[in-house]
Design goal:
This protein has helices spanning about 10-20, 20-30, 45-50, 65-70, 75-85, 105-115, 130-155, 160-185, 190-205, 205-220, 245-250, 265-270, 280-285, 300-315, 330-340, 360-370, and strands at about 35, 50-55, 95-100, 120-125, 230-235, 255-260, 320-325, 345-350. The chain is of the alpha/beta class. Strands 2-1-3-4 form a four-stranded parallel β-sheet, sandwiched between helices. Strands 6-5-7-8 form a four-stranded parallel β-sheet, with helices on both faces.
Length: about 375
């Protein structure tokens, strides 16, 4: 990743992610670290039990260890996480939690558990239909998860502590909403790589600490100089993406990234928990339509995801869509044709391959901005 283009205070946030010093401090203080491999894992439960939920992200240009243990077709995110586990970079992790949201993450969970052998592992069974029966099942599933994790941590699950964690996470989501307003301003005050630095930092620290840092700097962020010389406002669509270099390239080419539906961004924080207990938590995670896997009866899941995307575009005033299509991601493969077919905006599809070669994308991005940008 490239961090030399970041302004203060975004460098500070990026270093929290890249250096993992806060995670090291949590370990020294006796806290257990639970790595999550999907944005649908209910972190509030982990947080309420006194452990630290950390979204596992493997930032590697090459993944030779993972390539020797996993199928070649799995997505770059899965290969990166497995590489981190096999290389020892994720030795701080005491346990992992996944969710049955796509086949790639099922393979990742199985491979990580088999080869890395964390002390704790759990796969949250996620329903694919959003109806009453599924809601009852998912509520019980979250209760089972809480029981299993509380047993591993040798602590008791408490609805009162869960309520506090829900408040912390709702505050996090509301702050992200405030930051979104700065991002989608007429002169966006936060660049794409700076935005991703904030999102990455939020995965590598306790949310209450992230909330405190952002709240203390919010006035400073509002006074930042905005981008004035861009030619095209774009919405980014994809899944687990976090490559700062490609985000920089988009904006060097005249685009301003003003919204997204990424699992590492809007797909992660969108949607408040309305209520106090496990049932309210289940309702939020089942109703978070940034995920392509869950749908109400009579609707396709991709239709609900498209509704999420159109809402983000309406809010941000995006004029075009750039799809970051990971060749190994079944979700990308399923949703990409639908977005292209249904969108009334111009769409650029970038087939991602890692390690990323910037020059192979530069010409296409510049031509797209030239064709559809103003000025």
């Amino acid at each position: 990743m490239l961090s030399n283009t970041l302004r203060e205070p975004f460098k500070e946030f990026y270093h929290i992610f890249s250096k993992r010093r806060r995670i090291e401090q949590y370990k020294k203080n006796g806290r257990k670290i639970i790595g999550t491999i999907c944005n649908n894992v209910p972190e509030e439960i982990i947080h309420s039990l006194g452990a630290v939920p950390v979204r596992l992200i493997g930032d590697y240009e090459n993944t030779p260890l993972a390539n020797s243990k996993a199928p070649s077709w799995i997505c770059s995110y899965a290969r990166g996480v497995l590489e981190g586990g096999l290389s020892g970079d994720f030795n701080f992790v005491d346990g992992i939690v996944g969710a049955t949201t796509d086949d790639t993450k099922l393979h990742l969970f199985s491979a990580y558990r088999f080869y890395v052998m964390p002390a704790f592992s759990y796969m949250v069974q996620f329903p694919y239909v959003n109806d009453e029966l599924s809601f009852e099942f998912f509520t019980k599933e979250l209760q089972r998860f809480a029981e299993k994790l509380s047993s591993f941590l040798s602590t008791n699950f408490s609805e009162e502590r869960l309520l506090n964690s829900i408040k912390v996470y709702n505050e996090f989501r509301e702050l992200c909403g405030e930051l979104e307003e700065l991002r989608r301003a007429d002169t966006p005050k936060i660049t794409a790589s700076e935005w991703m630095s904030l999102m990455l930092a939020s995965t590598a620290m306790l949310k209450e600490e992230f909330n405190s840092m952002v709240s203390a700097r919010l006035d400073e962020l509002k006074e930042l100089d905005g981008m004035k010389d861009y030619r095209l406002r774009i919405h980014l669509s994809g899944t687990d993406f976090y490559h700062l270099g490609l985000l920089n390239l988009l904006e060097e080419s005249g685009a301003a990234v003003v919204s997204d539906d990424l699992c590492t961004s809007a797909g992660y924080y969108s949607g408040l928990v309305d209520g106090n207990g496990v049932e309210s938590l289940a309702k939020r995670y089942m109703g978070c339509t940034a995920c392509v896997m869950t749908a109400h009866p009579g609707k396709l899941s991709v239709e609900e995801r498209l509704s999420f995307i159109w809402r983000k575009i309406d809010e941000s005033g995006a004029e075009a869509i750039v799809i970051l299509k990971d060749r190994g991601c079944e979700v990308c493969g399923h949703q990409c044709p639908w977005i292209v077919m249904e969108s009334e905006l111009p769409v650029l599809v970038l087939d991602l391959d890692f390690p990323i070669s910037m020059e192979q994308y530069r010409t296409r991005i510049e031509a797209f901005v030239e064709a559809h940008g103003g000025g």
